[in-house]
Amino acid sequence: MSMLAKVHELLEAMARERVRYCHWKSNFVLAQTVAGETDIDVLVDRSQAVTFRRLMAELRFHPAGSMKGRNFPSVEHYYALDEPSGVLAHVHVYFRVMTGESLAKNYHLPIEEMLLKDTREVESVRVPTPGAELVVFTIRMMLKHTALVELLLMARGKTRRQLVEEASWLTQRAPGAGDPREEAVALARTWLPALDPELFSACLKALTTPTSMGRRVLLGRRLRRQLRGYSRHGAWRARLSGVSAFASLFWHRIFGSLRDKSLVSGGAVIAFVGPEASGKSTLLAALNHWLDEDLAVTRLHAGKPPSTLLTLLPNLAVPLLRRLFPAARTTHIEAEYAAPERLERPASGQSLLFAVRSVLLAYDRRSLLVRAFRQAANGTIVLCDRYPPQGVGAPDGPQLSRFPEAAGGSAARRALANLEARLYREIPPPDMVVQLAVPLEVAVQRNATRGKREPEDYVRLRHSLIANLDFGTAPVKRLLTDKPVAETVLEAKRALWSAL
Predict the structure, then answer these.
(1) What tens digit of pLDDT does each residue of 120-137 get?
(2) For the whole model, what pTM was predicted?
(3) Would you say residue 440 lies in a domain?
(4) Is 21 helix (H, G, I), strand (E, B) or coil?
(5) Number of helices (H) and strands (E), helices first, in the chain?
(6) Cα dihedral 206, 183, 111, 55 in deg (nearest 10)
(7) What sign does the dihedral 404-407-408-412 (CA atoms) show?
(8) Which helix or strand (DSSP H or E) is residue 195 part of?
């Protein structure tokens, strides 16, 4: 397990600029932290906040905040792509010690200088003295015993075991050093004079020796009362804030992503286009999983948009109509018009059916992508499988102007063609297009081995049609996908992150 290159860059930059900082909590798992397995909790001297923010900008760390208003004063989030590994490094920076229940952080403890002075280096990171970190650990853990949601989380075996292991690690006496517990009691008496030293000692003992949950809850409540002078909100407002945050957490666990962080620079619509069997689904699944660890992200399929209220009933009839009128299917018409000799023309009834279906599809695509544009404007990263290009002659774009004979020559059909074209013009452009490319024979081979297999002629036709798509002013990044999957995913991460 090695330190991320991006984290190493940050540590070197802070040392060079002599920024006073420390990794102020959870140093029990510091090796995993600097390897990018969890966020990096850094306390920075607030008098050097401007210098720190400048360094983060120079190192291409993007600031982020909560989309649901769960931001805390003196606390900031930064994200950066660690390019060698593809890991998203998350720096959680504090300019003041804000702590308490996980969902509320209702206490500002004036112990910043206690933590920042006399730091030592572990895993190339500045950390507080054992006693100073034990003060933070004791208060954080005991305050968690005062909230029902935290108690439910701690009741899980793994969390409870981690608490015991971290307490044991923090109280270990280093050779030639004093007892961290004695140091912690002395520091708490100096830096938190409102806190009864005997109560703090009892809380410390409850965490480091076998103690019933009921005893820890009682001690936690007493501790909370003594710390009320350091609270950000009164008791009732703090409880309402905690309940509201828990309700939001529960709602999003049931109905959507738990991640509500968005980059301050905003969201984006990133379109992934390419021929059949070019790896779009595999790539999008990997990128969605990567971003969903931290940021608000959603994934959609513009090639197969969901029905709207207007199109629901007609779309329900589409499978039956495909069986009754196979010559009116888009794939059939594409193949027909690509053939050197067009011996078969769609009948007028079938051409009208094709025209109506094309307009309904355009309406659904516009509705889906306008909604995606709104989500991106509000901070969400939208990963889009396929996207309508500009101009005539490409898949996923206007069909009736592309196949004029399929639309027919009547006024009604011309009106449908104009309506379809207008619906596509109203679709906002993506922020970036990632155009996947794969050699034709590789695409044919992949198609033959995947679950949802398309006819080989169709794969060859789509490959030729998608070779030169026009997306207007949207920047296009071309990505060859005949490499190993891990290499392709890493290259896609770099392209995506550059657009944010």
Answers:
(1) 999 899 999 999 999 999
(2) 0.84
(3) yes
(4) strand
(5) 21, 15
(6) -110
(7) negative
(8) none
